[in-house]
Design brief:
By secondary structure, this protein is mainly α. It has one domain. The chain is built from seven helices and no strands.
């Protein structure tokens, strides 16, 4: 059991994506509403944003702002920036397509910049500590789900969209 917990914390991004997909499936199975493509896309993207962006960046914020880091102003700034991404991730779960796009762009730039910094060896470790490749899953899955919602929303008639 401790090995599973250690793995889940080591690959936090993958774990949060899976938790979001499981919660979306539970929401869809327990709902009385008809499961059309737009509803499926909205629910899955909502839970993805809540878990991967909201909870994930809240975790990053807590790691940076905890008392052991309080003496380093740079870590506090990073923690507060991550807290901002977490708040936008939670708020965008109930927002429109534009707000969901905005909630994905900032964290995606953060994640890609972090991966490029690790690859360039800016943290002193180079390619050997590139365990954060699971973090690249967040922008990939997020933009795929956003594209799915966009296509489903575009194919709905005006009459059908008014009944959502």
């Amino acid at each position: 059991m401790t090995q599973v917990l250690h793995w889940a914390l080591e690959y936090r991004a993958l774990t949060l994506v899976l938790i979001g997909l499981v919660l979306a499936a539970l929401t869809l199975f327990t709902s009385d509403r008809a499961p059309h493509a737009l509803r499926l896309a909205q629910v899955v993207l909502r839970w993805f944003l809540l878990c991967s962006i909201g909870a994930g960046f809240l975790w990053v914020s807590a790691q940076q702002v905890l008392p052991q880091a309080a003496g380093d102003p740079l870590r506090v700034q990073i923690g507060l920036a991550a807290l901002g991404f977490a708040v936008v991730g939670v708020a965008s779960a109930w927002g429109g397509l534009g707000m969901r796009l905005a909630a994905l762009i900032g964290p995606s730039v953060w994640i890609v910049g972090s991966l490029l910094g690790k690859a360039a060896g800016l943290d002193g470790s180079g390619w050997s500590s590139l365990f954060g490749l699971s973090d690249a899953l967040v922008p990939l899955v997020g933009f795929a789900l956003l594209g799915w919602q966009f296509r489903a929303q575009r194919h709905r008639s005006v009459f059908a969209r008014s009944r959502l």
